[in-house]
Write a structure and sequence with these properties.
The protein has helices at residues 18-24, 31-40, 57-64, 76-83, 123-133, 152-165, and strands at 47-51, 68-72, 92-95, 109-114, 134-142. The chain is of the alpha/beta class. It has a single domain (10-165), classed as Rossmann fold, CATH 3.40.50.150. It has a five-stranded parallel beta sheet with strand order 3-2-1-4-5. Helix 5 (123-133) links the parallel strand 4 and strand 5 (134-142). The longest helix has 14 residues, at 152-165. The chain is globular and about 45 Å long.
Length: 168
């Protein structure tokens, strides 16, 4: 198995994978919205920062709910793919930033939402950034998908494919 290209910064590693990411990456369940409405007082007026937004898969759930979303993404190619959503969702603003430096205004969002990108963040540096941009009473939402226990054989087969053919 080949390792990652050591010359690539973590923020550049997905540049050549945008189309595959959009086509094959699993989507977030729409039930996230109802859960956040019930437990965290999410409303259509809530402003969301999707940090590490990639192509906008998590942002799209909030946008479909009517929320204003700032999609913070450091990778130019992934951010460009996310910006294509603006045609359908005018409340989307894509921002060239990182979890550690979002470039958003102080106290500007009600929710910081993070999908499958959390492991790329410098946790000690992103925490104060999230606190800085969150309004009083705001929430940090971590959305990830664990394995579906009903299909463990599919997961094993997928992991075998990654081991055999994965680039990193």
């Amino acid at each position: 198995m080949n390792g990652p290209d050591p010359s690539l910064k973590p923020t550049e590693r997905f540049s050549s994978r945008v189309e595959a990411y959009r086509r094959f990456r699993s989507r977030y369940p729409g039930e996230i919205i109802a859960l956040l409405e019930e437990r965290c007082a999410l409303t259509r007026e809530s402003v969301v920062a999707d940090v590490g937004a990639g192509t906008g898969m998590l942002a799209e759930l909030f946008l479909a709910n009517g929320n204003r979303v700032f999609a913070v993404e450091p990778n130019a190619d992934m951010r460009a793919a996310c910006e294509e959503l603006v045609a359908r969702y005018p409340h989307l603003t894509c921002v060239d930033g990182t979890a550690e430096e979002t470039h958003l205004a102080d106290r500007s969002v009600d929710f910081v939402a993070v999908g499958r990108a959390l492991h790329w963040f410098d946790q000690e540096k992103c925490r104060p950034e999230f606190v800085r941009i969150l309004r009083e009473g705001g929430w940090v939402v971590l959305a990830n998908q664990g394995p579906d226990r009903r299909s463990e054989s599919v997961i094993r087969e997928f992991q075998d494919i990654l081991k055999t053919h994965g680039l990193d």
